[in-house]
Specification:
Length: 427
């Protein structure tokens, strides 16, 4: 496991640019996740164990904890924001169980997350009643203190939960539950991924086009399909009272892939006025797409905050959003609510219902530096650097050019070097 440079002051020629850490797993490492500060790393292995490393003030990474988290291989890991106390780590195993692990700061080193017998004790867990979950994504809203969990199952079914206490996800309410992707055929090679939009709000052009400020956005991939969903506000009558809810609609579908899509990533930093999504494909290419929300320049609006936010008063957004989650228990019920849903029983489609905003997707770059199947792709925290890992074991980094396209900027690979024995003095 190679770590990024630990400081800019190590400029000497003989100082190592990277630290090679012996992770200690007895099998292949399947998932790696860093926290927001970059000083804590979690690794998940095919043996079902999670190991956590902390970077100390001397720049050395040391093992913090190690425990058996899942009965099989670990598919994905994600740290929750540091603003949540205590530190929380989410994991997903091949058996389809989504689990949350909490750190006990008062525990002895080596037992911060696990129990005395070396087995982890998760604070909460979710499992699918139908097909096992294959991918997850967690998003936390710092203003409302709400946490959203998206879980994508092996049959292409997507479930999104909302709640406040991550240590009690079993009590979370469902925002939406629908078929996002086509169910694969028996025996077909599959790969499913779901990722939330990491930006706190939609970009300003999307707001002007009519996307709500608190809209949730996510990208999902399965087989050769890549789709972007966003929420629209819905109002239904429940026991004679109007209740407000949200449901996802298909914003745009990307149809540029003819081979299995292995990974997707949504770029932070939508200050550009558009969103960007990157995909890693089995055909050896990394593709970067630009997502726009066209609006009419003759819509009578200006770029003032009041015009962009539409009917909602500017002084109410975003600081005074309701801090209470809009749960499915308060959501629409009855025959009318089911009729209003876009594609309740089949795959979600764009049906021009009220609140659905048209999106467009344009491919910015098609990068084939790997020349082998690409397995992982992700952006840095600013959305300025794109990284990908291919079947040949190399990390490729790309940067965006002034014309909007992306180009390879660096390459990192592991090499075995034969060490020469030092000369011995004889005589």
């Amino acid at each position: 496991m190679a770590m990024l440079p630990i400081g800019e002051d190590s400029t000497a020629e003989n100082s190592p640019a990277f630290d090679i850490i012996q992770h200690g797993h007895k099998d292949l490492v399947q998932a790696i996740a860093f926290n927001a500060y970059g000083d804590r790393c979690a690794t998940g292995s095919v043996d079902g164990k999670i190991r956590i490393f902390n970077r100390h003030q001397d720049g050395i990474w040391r093992l913090c904890d190690n425990w058996k988290a899942h009965p099989g291989e670990i598919l994905e890991l994600q740290w929750l924001p540091p603003t949540i106390y205590p530190n929380l780590l989410a994991s997903l195993g091949i058996e389809g169980r989504f689990r949350v692990w909490a750190e006990d700061p008062a525990a002895a080193p080596g037992r911060r997350f696990s129990s005395r017998d070396g087995n982890g004790k998760n604070v909460s867990e979710l499992r699918s009643p139908r097909y096992p979950y294959r991918s997850f994504s967690v998003k936390h809203d710092e203003l409302t203190r709400c946490t959203f969990i998206a879980l994508l199952a092996a049959d292409g079914h997507l479930t999104v939960f909302e709640g406040e206490e991550l240590q009690a996800v079993a009590d979370y309410g469902k925002i939406d539950d629908f078929q996002a992707l086509t169910k694969p055929n028996r025996g077909e090679e599959t790969c499913f991924k779901v990722r939330f939009d990491p930006n706190p709000e939609p970009c300003y052009t999307a707001l002007r086009a009519g996307v709500p400020t608190d809209a949730l956005s996510l990208v999902v991939s399965g087989l050769t399909a890549v789709k972007i969903f966003r929420t629209r506000d819905t109002v239904a009558s429940s026991f004679g009272a109007a209740t407000r809810g949200r449901e996802f609609y298909l914003a745009v579908e990307i149809t540029e892939h003819n081979y299995l899509v292995r990974d997707v990533a949504w770029a932070p930093g939508n200050y550009r006025g558009y969103d960007m999504v990157a995909t890693a494909c089995q055909d050896g290419f990394v593709r970067v797409f630009r997502i726009d929300t066209p609006f009419s320049k003759d819509d009578g609006k200006t770029w003032s905050l009041a015009d962009i936010l539409g009917n909602t008063r500017a002084d109410e957004q975003p600081s005074s959003r309701s801090s209470h989650p809009r749960r499915q228990s308060q959501a629409p019920s009855g025959i009318r609510a089911e009729i209003d849903k876009s594609g309740t029983h089949g795959e979600r489609t764009l049906t021009d219902l009220q609140g659905q905003i048209r999106h467009t997707a344009k491919m910015l770059s098609k990068l084939g530096a790997h020349r082998s199947p690409v397995w992982r792709v992700d952006f840095d925290d600013d959305g300025q650097i794109l990284g990908s890992v291919g079947d040949e074991g190399k990390l490729m980094c790309y940067r965006q050019l002034p014309d909007g396209s992306w180009a390879k900027s660096s390459e990192l690979g592991m090499m075995k070097a034969r060490m020469a024995a030092p000369p011995t003095n004889q005589g």
